[in-house]
Fold this sequence. Notes:
Elements: E1 2-5, H1 10-25, H2 38-53, E2 57-64, E3 67-75, E4 85-93, H3 102-116, E5 121-127, H4 133-138, E6 142-152, E7 158-167
Parallel strand pairs: 4-5
Antiparallel strand pairs: 1-2, 2-3, 3-4, 5-7, 6-7
Helix pairs in contact: 1-2
Amino acid sequence: xxxxxxxxxxxxxxxxxxxxxxxxxxxxxxxxxxxxxxxxxxxxxxxxxxxxxxxxxxxxxxxxxxxxxxxxxxxxxxxxxxxxxxxxxxxxxxxxxxxxxxxxxxxxxxxxxxxxxxxxxxxxxxxxxxxxxxxxxxxxxxxxxxxxxxxxxxxxxxxxxxxxxxxxxxxxxxxxxxxxx
Length: 181
């Protein structure tokens, strides 16, 4: 498996769209409803990769040969009072590649990239029903709480959202104002 940041090319957009459509059809709660049109999937990824080109995020892809098998987005563009924080979003693995360590490898790579961008705190959310809580807890994320009835599941019905966080460096001052000791 090879993991790398993705860029806006027609083949990458097609592969990301395929994964998104497959995950939503399988009930994955990643902000979209089933059925998801190819046009809407493509538009989402074009916007996401445009934000990546502007340094606001990193869209990672996991490859097996020439096949994109998974993706994870590291959101870097946080408000001015949160320069130390990044967020993991849109973790997706093709259904036929689940259980192969792809999601864990993507999350570890995202952590390293967050550290390289000066981030000391990662946050994420995952659906309460059918989400990836076990995966994130196994990677050292701390459960912060649950918001009930947060979103619709792709095939209808409400699900809660579980919130997680992980400190990337030892506790201590996270941000110092220039000129202040």
